[in-house]
Structure formats: C-alpha cells, structure tokens
Design a protein that fits this description.
5 helices; globular; transcription regulation; transcription; HTH_ArsR_DNA-bd_dom; DNA binding; DNA-binding transcription factor activity
C-alpha cells in the first residue's frame, strides 16, 4: 500500500489518474495535456503501474493506459475500516 500512497502523493500523477477516469489514453495523448517531457510522463506512468493504479495494454503501435478502479475500491474500503 506504500507504493499506492507514494504514487498519489504527486500532483502530476493525480492529474493523470483524473484524465484516465474520463477515458483510456496512450502516453502521447497523456503527454499532450502536460508541459513536461515525454520521458517524465513515462516515469509517472511507470510509478502508477507499479502501484496498480493503472493498467496497460498494447494496441497496435501504442500502449493504452486504463484506470484500475479495483485498487481504488480496496483503498476506500481500507479507509472505511479505520472509522469506528
């Protein structure tokens, strides 16, 4: 769960999660929304993947990224258990 909190601790990664909430996108489409380098976007995507917040699937010459909502559900359930 530490990797999940680390991934969500960055504003750019939270913005990427917000984008993927709307629709699946490839790295180029994501990069177009930010004023940072494509390698930096790839780094952020890698951190999000390692935290299981996003998944990727090769589609032709592109890799499409999707939000993994099940990990977010797990996080919310865990948070709810803290309330007494």
């Amino acid at each position: 769960m530490n990797s999940l909190f680390k991934a969500l601790n960055d504003e750019t990664r939270r913005q990427i999660v917000e984008l993927l909430k709307e629709k699946d996108m490839n790295a180029g489409e994501i990069a177009e929304r930010f004023n940072i380098s494509k390698p930096s976007i790839s780094h952020h995507l890698d951190i999000l993947k390692r935290a299981d917040l996003i998944t990727s699937e090769k589609k032709g010459q592109f890799v499409e990224y999707s939000l993994n909502t099940s990990i977010l559900e797990d996080l919310l359930n865990w948070i709810l258990t803290l309330k007494k």
